[in-house]
Amino acid sequence: MEEKAIFQGGIQLLTKTDNHDNTMHELSLAQNLIDQLLQLSKQHDAKTVTKVTVMIGPFSGIVVESFAFGFKALKQDHQPITGAQLILETPAPEYICLDCKTINTGDTRTADGHPKAVYETINDKICSACGSNRLSPNGGAELILKQLEME
Predict the structure, then answer these.
(1) Where are the alpha helices (DSSP H) in the chain?
(2) Least confident of 45-49, 117-121, 125-129, 132-136
(3) pTM of the entire structure?
(4) Topology of domain 4-150, per CATH?
(5) Distance CA 107, CA 44 (A)
């Protein structure tokens, strides 16, 4: 196993001890969001960003908790957004029936309210219209900045 430390502003954010560096993905996505927020706040002459609402699709491959951690840690180095509240929306997964084309919504959630991973739910699903188990994910791979509040 390889150990990696990630630093931001002189603070060690985390240490990875395996070769699957998933958190690096979420950190880079959080940094891209911060860059976008800084650009928007400058463009609108805002002194502070107070609230950021982001939707993370259930099939995006983004670990919601890691993304939130990355945003919280990285925002500290950027004055307009240091106090910004991050609201994460994680809609339930949707599946399309390959037999009758009905859209079925998965409603299975983890204890913290986020949708379970695809592999935990798709095998248990059947179409609500025809009973088929031939379901395929329908959308849900997005990461969208939905709302931004600035002063």
Answers:
(1) 22-43, 64-74, 118-121
(2) 117-121
(3) 0.73
(4) hypothetical protein PF0899 fold (3.30.2320)
(5) 39
